[in-house]
């Protein structure tokens, strides 16, 4: 009888990667712009910290700690007045900086302390906050190909019940095509090389279909380009640029036919769940309107692939939870390097308790 | 960026009020009389101690520990025979004092020890037990106006998932009218004074409606008196008389137009839920039958106000649970005093573990 | 007021019996044969260890640790190829010994370590595994009367949310007939004697019906034999032969009219639930086909008795969980001896942590 050797971590393993928090000194997406209506609040979170997004009827979205300083109930249950949010319980009111500006039964000279505010940025159809204590860097500029009219972009995602690191590893290890065998058919990935920097890492793959035709969903994305081009090469690059991830796919030329951007925002304090935000941009073929007609097929296809990925990473998290540690027995060198990168850029648990 | 200063307790804070247990040396309501049918048992509890109420076909209700001494299964699943309750499993039988009076397969000389019994009192449509080790005081006499034929009384309530102290604070801080804005319209409460004793504390309020008419539910309760009286004054007194609470409302004269009594009985061992029992008595207007006709409106109105209160106190408890402590930043002096009173009369956690 | 004296364990109590694990050095049933289809996997467990059963299209069932050595996801989600199972994620493949025999993107000379395999045996319509580290004993031969054509056998059972020891005690203490009063009518059991060995213990009972007729279900099982025989004696023997249990009932002669075999396999790591497997064999009466006609009545009757037993043992477990210990106040000497036997043959918690 053999013991699952995953019990003993590999010699170069970065401690317990699943115990390392996403580093808060970055801009994290916490909502789609469309979710925060004018004159309304929206409840979200970063790693267990409740955050309320407030969009005044006129003016920019702002982000506060989602707890009234008085009795700690969510401000997101409150009422937006001009550029303030009023708690639903005793009516305490806060401005965009978190300052308490009114308590209906107290003089203006006696106002109590307020709540924490978060730097907030809206762009690319997303609302970002900066949850860290460090001074905010410049917010993300244009993401992927979402602003390029040569592409059509789909925005989707959901809360996935796993640590963000499982998401990075899943996407970067293209050897997992067996998982999608019922959706994509038989695909043989081939590792082509890697490049690295202090906070980024990227891997190249090519693909071969041993004996089958690609499914309709894939044809919609890459088919027309591949056939039309002479210098066809089928290259995919998956890149982790901490804390985000991108996937680009080229069939020919410099412009990728597919450009995907992914953000993973921890939801709960233990970071055993993350909200995944995906911007998937597909290059428009030469025939006008073709991509729009095929869009529902592409949506179905990408939803299904994403659902298969979510199911498996949630099983990985469940195994971690029951085993009480990371028994991963990684054999693919790029993933071993990715794990080190995530560990080096994240926040170890010691930091959180000290 | 501001930090929510609720993190640091106020200098005169009574430790962690939500960790202080309801003192067991009092009479606590554990069921409505109508819930305990003749010849039947009823399962209830006090702070995690399971209690079975037994009403023999003839004779008074009695209260025992709801566990058979033998295999610890609930006696409330058993059978009532005369003035005993027989366990459903192996048929062990107990009398009103908790003594084991029969084991079908054992001689009467070999009977094992029994179970704990609780002093039990029935009155005002409620069944009370005395869960403490101290010698029982006289049980509550007539509660509020429920025995006065000049009033009509509604009995309602439910299990609320919060510490009993949130209930006391909610009712006594009338500045929370903003919470009920959709039910009661705009009401401006005004603090009028307070009085205190070692185990009681009461606060007076008056009310003003800046610009609106009262809703139908409120008119049913106070409307006809207010208009009919010359010495109108609209006074409300909220009183905590440990461990109960009352609310009285006068429009004129000595007799309140509204008299509410509330009992909060901890359900679970951590006391993070309580069963609230409410006796709401409304003075009958001069026109006979008017109150009876309006009763369904009043029931709808009071249910809705109570539901709004339950929702918010459960949010307070949820915040306490996730924050791991009481971050309350209280600014209203009467509530600060109420918190001290509840802490002083309750049972600190040290007592429970020693 | 009395305190439930169950709080203090009896002087000869075997520590906390509910903290003692089922000893893994035995053959435990983990599935019915019919649950594991050819070419398919089946997910089961022993005491929190996930186990996958694999039945190749041709060949014997085998049992592996239900986690891929790579990323710990269940192999039971994978694909059966010939005599191997392939993980659904990156396609790692294992044979019946747990050896990793293929990683699609790795040379055959670089294959990583595999997973644990379990000795596996199929017989009597059951699949057994040997979860212990000790050398496997001979697997169970013919169970009860299930292979005897003079009997008709029913196979049933379910996951019961309690420690296996509650199951043994429930069946062996026939004084619990009061529990089944609504199903079986009034039955007065009488203890007749006991016999013991190092890993077995058995108790005899006879029964008397004070004033009532037996229910239809019981008549189906024993009725025709009882009336036809001269040396009628109505003897029941309940036997624990670690870790299994049997119940035999004779009305006359050597061959029991009823022969029941029960296996209790711990499901979760804390062993607070078990999967109960029951083989209930009823001797065929002389009239051919009578038992087959009556079978649905017998199924209904035995299901109902079993459901009553499950409900009560789950209440015992719930009491244990809330009391944090075994407050059992046992007065029936055979059950006190049974408890000692289960403790002596089980695995104490110290063993598990060291």
Question: Which helices and strands appear, and what pairs or packs with what?
Answer:
Three copies of one chain form a homotrimer.
Chain A: E1 28-32, E2 40-46, E3 49-55, E4 62-65, E5 79-81, E6 84-86, E7 93-95, E8 100-102, E9 117-118, E10 120-123, E11 126-129, E12 151-160, H1 164-172, H2 181-184, E13 188-196, E14 200-208, H3 216-228, E15 235-241, E16 244-250, E17 258-266, E18 274-283, H4 290-323, H5 333-345, H6 349-353
Antiparallel strand pairs in A: 1-11, 2-3, 3-4, 4-9, 5-6, 6-7, 7-8, 10-11, 12-18, 13-14, 14-15, 15-16, 16-17, 17-18
Describe it:
With 354 residues, chain A is α+β, with helices and mostly antiparallel strands. Helix content of chain A is 22%, strand content 30%. Chain A is built from six helices and 18 strands. In chain A, the strands form four sheets. A seven-stranded antiparallel β-sheet of chain A has the order 12-18-17-16-15-14-13, covered by helices on one side. In chain A, strands 2-3-4-9 form a four-stranded antiparallel β-sheet, with no helix packed on it. In chain A, strands 5-6-7-8 form a four-stranded antiparallel β-sheet, with no helix packed on it. In chain A, a hairpin with a 2-residue loop joins strand 15 (235-241) and strand 16. In chain A, helix 1 (164-172) packs antiparallel against helix 5 and helix 3 packs across helix 4. Chain A is globular, with a radius of gyration of 23 Å. The two termini of chain A are 43 Å apart. Chains in contact: A-B, A-C, B-C. Chain A binds chain B through residues 48, 50, 65, 67, 69-74, 77, 86-91, 97-99, 103-106, 110, 112-118, and chain B through 1-6, 173, 175-176, 178-179, 189, 191, 312, 315-316, 319-320, 322-323, 327-332.
């Amino acid at each position: 009888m053999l013991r699952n050797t995953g019990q003993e971590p590999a010699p170069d393993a970065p401690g317990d990667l699943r115990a390392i928090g996403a580093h808060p000194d970055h801009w994290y997406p916490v909502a789609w712009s469309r979710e925060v209506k004018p004159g309304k609040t929206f409840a979200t979170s970063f790693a267990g910290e409740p955050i309320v997004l407030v969009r005044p009827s006129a003016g920019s979205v702002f982000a506060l700690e989602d707890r009234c300083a008085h009795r700690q109930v969510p401000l997101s249950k409150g009422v937006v007045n001009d550029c303030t949010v009023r708690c639903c319980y005793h009516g305490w009111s806060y401005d965009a900086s978190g300052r308490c500006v009114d308590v209906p039964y107290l003089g203006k000279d006696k106002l109590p302390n307020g709540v924490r505010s978060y730097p907030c940025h809206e762009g690319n159809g997303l609302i970002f906050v900066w949850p860290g204590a460090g001074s905010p860097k410049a917010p993300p500029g244009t993401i992927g190909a979402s602003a390029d009219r040569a592409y059509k972009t789909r925005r989707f995602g959901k809360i996935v019940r796993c640590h963000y690191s499982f998401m990075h590893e899943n996407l970067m290890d293209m050897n997992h095509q067996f998982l999608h065998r019922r959706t994509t058919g038989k695909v043989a990935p081939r590792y082509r090389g890697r490049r690295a920097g202090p906070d980024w890492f990227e891997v190249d793959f090519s693909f071969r279909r041993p004996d089958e035709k690609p499914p309709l969903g894939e044809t919609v994305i890459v088919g027309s380009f591949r056939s039309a081009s002479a210098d066809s090469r089928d290259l995919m690059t998956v890149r982790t640029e901490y804390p985000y991830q991108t996937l680009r796919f080229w069939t020919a030329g410099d412009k990728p036919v597919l450009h995907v951007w992914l953000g993973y925002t921890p939801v709960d304090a233990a970071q055993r769940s993350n909200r995944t935000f995906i911007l998937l941009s597909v290059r428009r073929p030469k025939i006008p309107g073709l991509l729009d007609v095929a869009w529902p097929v592409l949506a179905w296809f990408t939803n299904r692939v994403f659902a298969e990925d979510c199911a498996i990473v949630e099983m990985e998290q469940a195994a971690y939870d029951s085993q009480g540690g990371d028994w991963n027995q990684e054999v693919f060198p790029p993933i071993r390097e990715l794990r080190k990168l995530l560990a080096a850029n994240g926040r170890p648990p010691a930091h959180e308790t000290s």
